[in-house]
Amino acid sequence: MRRRRLVIAAISGLAVALAVSQLPGSPLRLPLFGGRLGALEGTVRLGGEQEAGPTPVGNTTDPDVCGRSQSLQDLLVDARTRGVSNAVAALVDLPDSLRSPAPEPQRHLIDNRGCQFIPHVSVAALGDTLVALNSDPVFHTTHYYGPLDNNVALTEPGQAVPTVIDQPGMVTILCDLHGWMRGFIRVDDHRFHDVSDERGRFRITGIPVGPYTVEVWHERLGTRRLTVEIEAGRTTRLDVVFDPPNGAASGG
Questions:
Q1: C-alpha angle with apex 30: 24 to 36, nearest 5 degrees?
Q2: Are 121 and 172 in contact (CB under 8 A)?
Q3: Which residues contact 197 (CB under 8 A, 6 or more apart)?
Q4: In this structure, is the dihedral angle defined by the CA atoms of residues 44, 50, 51 and 55, taken in order, positive or negative?
Q5: CA pair distance 99, 192, nearest whole angstrom
Q6: Which residues pair with residue 211 across a beta bridge?
């Protein structure tokens, strides 16, 4: 009888593990929801047909390294799909059971490379560590503003300085020496967030079933909030379309 109970328990545990494994990247605590998980994926696109791109900036600071021209990297649009890079999609107003503390603190590299912050936009969770790295042969600063208030001086190539995140919110990064350099880090008390890729695509996995509010943010196009329903074992699709920068955002 004891052996039979052990076999049944093992089979039940395997069933939960298989349900979770269908959605890569699921947080480790989510088997508590019995494997009733779904995913959210979608695209962020620019409406209309007019050409759009990042704001150009002329440069006289360290031109031998940084070049005579740069850009704010504030609007990157795929020419074929109209997909918008560097938009953040995040679940908001979550119940306490899905919030802090986030599992397994992570390290995120903020590279000063080519006189730009790479990545330009990223997401992180409370307790994670940001590592500011200088890959250029010039003096940079990685100056965090907002909930993370810290100014990191990177005087030499290869220098790396870690900073632990202890407050949620939107962190803005600037370089005090090169005015066009800017970046953004959205910090949440969970990991249900993602940044759109070069074709405007994002994906959030391991979400327990139910209704959610999704916030989609872009530095130049604005912010949208939409409601989605997550179903067990299925992927919910969301297509968000922003009007060009001189208009209001729209989507669905």
A1: 85
A2: no
A3: 83, 85
A4: negative
A5: 9
A6: 229
Joined tokens for residue 83: 């997909």
Predicted confidence (pLDDT) per residue in 105-153, tens digit:
999 999 999 999 999 999 999 999 999 999 999 999 999 999 999 999 9
- What are the E-state strand segments in 22-120? 37-46, 56-58, 69-71, 88-92, 107-113, 116-118
Integer CA distances (angstroms), 211 to 20, 30, 215, in order:
19, 17, 13
Chain position carrying tokens 């969301």: 238
**Residue 81 carries which DSSP code?**
T
Q: Which residues contact 62 (CB under 8 A, 6 or more apart)?
A: 115, 138, 177, 178
Both tokens of 204, joined, read: 């959030």
CA dihedral 219, 135, 168, 28 (to 10 degrees): 110
Tokens of 201: 């695509």
**Tokens 């391991």, residue located:** 206
- Predicted pLDDT of residue 17: 31
Quote the Cα angle for 197-199-200, to 5°: 65
Give this prediction's pTM.
Answer: 0.83
Query: CA 137, CA 223: separation in Å to the nearest integer?
Result: 37
